[in-house]
Amino acid sequence: MKPSTADNNSDLHLTHLDEQGRAKMVDVGDKDITSREAVARGHVSIQPETARLIKEGLMKKGDVLTIAQLAGIMGAKKTSELIPLCHPLPLDRVDVDLELDEAAGRINISATAKTTARTGVEMEALTAVSVAALTLYDMCKSVDRGMRIEAIRLVQKRGGRSGEIILEA
Fold first, then answer.
1. Distance between CA atoms of residues 147 and 127, nearest Å
2. 3-state SS, residue 14
């Protein structure tokens, strides 16, 4: 496991601010075009009855897991429109997986984003998980007002100058 880039950087500075403290988009023009991949995870905590309705396909709004999966993929594709200083990227692949974990009372979400570009796809993977989680919330809120969107985080990234970073297996 390689520590995060911030741990290796002795002169920490915010790359999205100029010398006057104004917001700026980072110039990635001199970076090499390389294959890059990021994996993010999160989950939505739900009540047992909500899990049962999802499992039995009885939610009024339809197939909750499939719709949330598609929403996550669509969210990844729109990341640069949602995050102001995020570069638009040509995505080679976005996979969003949802797993109903009845024993834990939650729906686990995992997203993998891949590109061949000058900058990484962490934001796209994180956005995919976030949008999938929000979609689950929207589709289930009529039966479960106590749902919680939790633990959205980057777990792996590969490519670029920092190489491979594994934050969680």
1. 19
2. coil
State pLDDT tens for residues 66-82.
999 999 999 999 999 99
- pLDDT per position as a tens digit, 41-70: 999 999 999 999 999 999 998 899 999 999
Q: For residue 89, how many other CB atoms are within 10 A of its CB?
A: 22
Tokens in use for 163?
Answer: 């190489």
138 is catalytic: yes
Q: What pTM did the predictor assign?
A: 0.85
d(CA 86, CA 78): 10
Reported as a pLDDT band with limits 50, 70 and 90, residue 38 is very high
Distance CA 39, CA 158 (A): 9
Residue 1 CA, distance from chain mean position: 21
Supply the DSSP symbol for 87. P
**Do the beta carbons of residue 70 and residue 78 sit within 8 Å?**
no
Two tokens at 50? 């909500």
Cα–Cα distance for residue pair 157/160, rounded to 1 Å: 9
Question: String of b and e for 30-44 (b: at least 16 CB within 10 Å)?
Answer: eeeeeebbbbbbbbb
Is the pLDDT score of 8 beyond 60? no
Catalytic residue among 92, 95, 97, 138: 138
116: tokens are: 């061949």
